[in-house]
Amino acid sequence: MISFDVLIVGGGGAGMRAALEASKHSNLKVGIISKTSPLRSTTGCTGGGLNAVFNNSDDTDSFEKHAYDTITGGSFLGDQDAIDFFVKHSPDAITELAEFGAPFFLDSSGKISQRQGPGSSAPRTCWTLGHATAHALYDQLLYANVTELSMCNILELVVTDSAVHGVIAYDSLTGKLIPIAAKSIVIATGGYGRVYWSRTTTPLGCTGDGVAVCLNAGIPVKDPEFIQFHPSALVDSGVLISDAPRTEGAYLLNNRNERFMKNYAPEQMEKATRDLVAIAIEKEIEAGRGLGHELNSHVLLDLRHLDKNLLHGGRLSQTDYTAKTFALVDPLQSPLPIRPSCHFTMGGIDIVDYHTCATIIPGVFAAGECACLSIHGANRLGGNALPEVVVFGKVAGAAAALFALTAPQQYDFALDSALQKWQEKFKYISNKKSSIPLPEIRDRLAQTLWHNVGVIRDEQRLNKAIVEIDILQDRYTQTGIADTNHIGNTDFIHYAEIGNMLTIAKALTIGALNRRETRGSHFRSDYCNNDDTSFLKHTIITKEDNRYNISYRPVTMTKYLPVGVEKYV
Q1: 304 catalytic, yes or no?
Q2: Can you list the domains of the chain with their CATH numbers?
Q3: I need a labelling partner for 517 at 20 to 30 A (CA). Which of 181, 275, 453, 559 fits?
């Protein structure tokens, strides 16, 4: 049996930062498992920069402004004490990244260049690529006292009587189901955007594994209904076009060649928050003012009027490359066909103490997109994701190390029992003859969520989604896998991932159905306004066997009170 003092599950930015922090305790054995190479994580795919108050471009910016932008951008659903902690620790986290070797764009004076992102009141986005962030963290990890196990998929978080024992994982390189004992565990497995499968900008691995295993182990999920749909993904491939073009002045056009944002956010126009822009685009399409048909329906992102130097070697060089590579379009010659796509999951594993990233199970911590610290509320601001990863990855790693220093570890029969269960399950599904292909279940789930729990929602569609998800869960229990090999069994990996996606999809839809209001990224066409009296609170979903329970928790208010009824498009 493999054993660690501190086990990090997930090799993205939050996981690597947690492992680095925990490894500072030389007397602790620290391990990190990930389903892919850390350099292929979601962190490595991001391109929106990192928000922090440095006052390099605007000496009037402040922590208070950053906090207020985050609170209002999240429609007051964010916990204000956690947000205050976050904004005050972001500058140090970004400075540390630069010291690790992450290259930031610099201004003429040699300071980190900052520009204004959508929803922000000041230029505070420090520009670098997530790929560079991942490399900087991984470089440090190579020198740290951390054991790395890649190509390892978590299958179960083993908890009995509110005590954590470790995890069961599938090592695709050896083909073995392995028990890993640990005194403390940090879950950092990323979001669950792949529940929408083809309508998402997230990598293939974002199947919500960490969120699902926590939910199955008795740890609640918080605010799962809040899904950020990025307004600008290429319609054919789902590849992301970042906020940067809109920040630099790109136009959004409908089939009448109109800048339609004037009808939805006349002051901010294309620089409005992501939720407002995404809703506006979908409303244009529903009203018949889009281009294309069905899933190919879209609007246009027009960059033709911008300075060509922005695209040729400047701040929009990545946009230029992405457009030419994935859409075969020169953005200086033709507009880009775009449509919203699932981009970020604000909800996740319920964190009960942002100072430690602790869950309700002692010894289990979580950080990154899989965790809901209630920083982003109902809608995340562009530029707030990567600093959250490094700020709270560090916090979780430090807390997990302190817990492990005093926690006993013994040979664990609970892990043996869980391992035997998974070995029997692998044998059962390998020998099961089924006419139900796993990809069919996956694709039907994605279509169900996109059409019924997408950008625009209502009670009829949400009830339809619940019925369909129940049918798919039943079909899932009847299916098997075609590949009976042990080594590199991608059929088995996908089987586990689809089970996780079904688990999360049910929680997501229940949360959306019961939140009878519009707030941030959650747009209910049958309840078009926010309802602070009834729903200024966090959704809490728990699961017992196959039964889902819903409750609510008040939002923490420290300084700023809601502005009343917010106007949605």
Answers
A1: no
A2: 2-227+344-413 (3.50.50.60), 230-341 (3.90.700.10), 434-554 (1.20.58.100)
A3: 559
